[in-house]
């Protein structure tokens, strides 16, 4: 969702963002810079500050973003100041949370998804808490319903995105499926993220495992490697630096195919007047894997009371309805309204690829090692 999940920024709105963009851009996996408005402080704050009873600290991946007014409402209603600490892509952020579990960096962690959930649960980084509003969330999204160590907060589908202009100029039909990506006409066109360090990268790998099975996915990746797939560390590099269809990057990349999200295309039309009939990027709908993203109260949190209130807020309808155009993910609440732009330009995936959580738990580390040995060497 993520990852996660999105470069959403606009200088005149006083919300921090990457220096490479001066117009509002959101990308379906990362809001790179720290929020620095009102009571929300930038990354890198000291642990002693987090102990302040009037401060609640949210630890997340780079994808977290929210409207200034929405966070300000929470601060006003709760009396807490919110500090946001960002730790890179979801995989890196989760690893850091595990490494620091004896002295957690904050009170709440946002951004562990179903591809990494069992790792966090096994490490014991979360304390049980049943957030208010959980009755509005479908059971299918509540993967830890028995323990309530984590709360589902959003979901999305990792999919290959394509640059329409490139395929029009080269008189090529864009790919639709995993199998299309290994065809000669798409040689050297795809960039994906590292499965070992990136949540969308791992989700894409799991999508191929769902499609080709435990006995066939490695052969598929051999063919994908032979067809020139490029691998980079994380989503932000893949989408904003290497993808030719991203308007957020200062310098256009040369890859017209990128592993991103079904909800990424609305990013490229956000703020455009008049709105185009069709967005400049599209989705290969046969390459999608469903991600569910969770938040949880960190075990040993210095401000557990504030952390519980923050989790309640993250599941509130106000925050859930703010998410689609801030992080470009779907809200989990059944009663949340989704903006028209989000549904008009994003792709709806009726049958995304999935892998059972228990299967991911049993094989994830082995699959990542096999993928790394096969693709990165």
Verbal overview:
- The chain is an alpha/beta fold and 377 residues long.
- The chain is 31% helix and 17% strand.
- It is built from 13 helices and ten strands.
- Strands 1, 2, 3, 4, 5, 6, 7, 8, 9 and 10 form a ten-stranded mixed beta sheet that branches.
- Helix 6 (199-212) crosses helix 7 and helix 7 (217-226) packs parallel to helix 13.
Multimerization state: single chain
User: Which term fits the overall shape?
Assistant: globular
Unreliably modeled segments? 1-51
- The fraction of residues assigned to DSSP E strands is 15-25%
Major sheet attributes: 10 strands, mixed
**Helix fraction?**
25-40%
Number of strands: 10
- H/E series: HEHEHEHEEHEHHEHEEHHHEHH
Instruction: Supply the helix-strand structural class.
Output: alpha/beta
Mean pLDDT: 86
Number of helices: 13
Distance between the termini: 27 Å
Taking all Cα atoms into account, the compactness measure Rg is: 19 Å
Question: What would you say about this model in short?
Answer:
With 377 residues, the protein is of the alpha/beta class. Helix content is 31%, strand content 17%.
List the helices and strands and how they pair.
Elements: H1 47-50, E1 55-60, H2 68-78, E2 81-86, H3 90-99, E3 108-113, H4 117-123, E4 126-127, E5 151-163, H5 164-169, E6 190-193, H6 199-212, H7 217-226, E7 230-232, H8 235-242, E8 257-261, E9 281-298, H9 304-314, H10 317-322, H11 324-327, E10 330-331, H12 340-345, H13 357-375
Helix pairs in contact: 6-7, 7-13
């Amino acid at each position: 969702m993520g990852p996660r999940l999105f470069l959403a920024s606009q200088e005149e709105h006083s919300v921090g963002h990457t220096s490479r963009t001066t117009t509002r851009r959101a990308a379906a996996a990362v809001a790179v810079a720290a929020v620095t408005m009102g009571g929300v402080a930038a990354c890198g704050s000291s642990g002693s500050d987090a102990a302040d009873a009037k401060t609640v600290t949210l630890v997340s991946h780079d994808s977290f973003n929210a409207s200034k007014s929405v966070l300000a409402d929470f601060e006003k209603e709760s009396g807490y100041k919110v500090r946001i600490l960002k730790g890179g892509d979801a995989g890196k952020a989760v690893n850091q949370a595990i490494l620091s579990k004896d002295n957690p960096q904050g009170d709440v962690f946002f951004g562990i998804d179903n591809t990494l959930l069992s790792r966090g649960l096994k490490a014991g980084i979360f304390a049980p808490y049943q957030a208010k509003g959980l009755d509005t969330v479908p059971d299918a999204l509540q993967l830890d319903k028995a323990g309530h160590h984590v709360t589902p907060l959003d979901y999305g589908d990792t999919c290959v995105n394509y640059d329409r202009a490139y395929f029009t100029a080269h008189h090529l039909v864009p790919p639709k499926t995993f199998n299309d990506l290994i065809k000669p006409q798409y040689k050297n066109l795809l960039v994906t993220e590292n499965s070992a360090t990136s949540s969308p990268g791992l989700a894409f790998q799991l999508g191929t495992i769902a499609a080709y099975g435990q006995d066939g996915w490695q052969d598929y990746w051999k063919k994908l490697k032979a067809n020139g797939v490029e691998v980079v560390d994380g989503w932000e590099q893949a989408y904003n630096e290497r993808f030719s269809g991203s308007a957020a990057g200062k310098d256009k990349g040369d890859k017209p195919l990128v592993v991103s999200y079904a909800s990424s295309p609305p990013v490229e039309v956000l703020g455009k007047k008049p709105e185009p009939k069709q967005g400049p990027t599209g989705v290969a709908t046969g390459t999608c894997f469903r991600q569910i993203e969770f938040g949880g109260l960190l075990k040993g949190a210095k401000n557990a009371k504030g952390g519980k209130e923050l989790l309640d807020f993250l599941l509130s309808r106000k925050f859930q309805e703010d998410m689609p155009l801030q992080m470009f993910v779907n809200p989990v609440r059944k009663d949340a309204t989704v903006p028209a732009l989000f549904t008009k330009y994003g792709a709806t995936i009726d049958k995304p690829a999935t892998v059972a959580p228990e299967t991911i738990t049993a094989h994830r580390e082995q699959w990542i090692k096999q993928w790394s040995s096969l693709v990165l060497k």
